[in-house]
Write a structure and sequence with these properties.
- This protein is mainly β.
- The chain has one domain: Sandwich (Jelly Rolls).
- The protein is built from no helices and 9 strands.
- Strands 2, 3, 5, 6 and 8 form a 5-stranded antiparallel beta sheet that branches.
- It starts with a strand and ends in a 6-residue tail after the last strand.
Amino acid sequence: MRIIIKARTAAGSTSAAPMDTYGAPFNVGMGVVVSGTVNYTVQHTFDNVQDSTITPTWFNHPVMASLTANQDGNYAFPVAAIRLTVNSGTGTATLNIIQAGMPGQ
């Protein structure tokens, strides 16, 4: 799978990065790189973010929450989508996502 990149400067959330829940194995590696001063959280949802009639419920990643430095992590279980939320600060956080089991695009 191609690398998905989501970046955010200042408080707020990126758009959602939908995952392929049919991919086997469902393994997602990700890393956040920080520039400047920023506090961020990686979040996931089990809701269909492609359906505009649904307001997704977002859950914080168990390790990648309220961080201020570079960090990597993963999802070994299926999630519908991932996003990056900057909680505070004026710097930039950049999330890189790679999902296994997918041909290169």
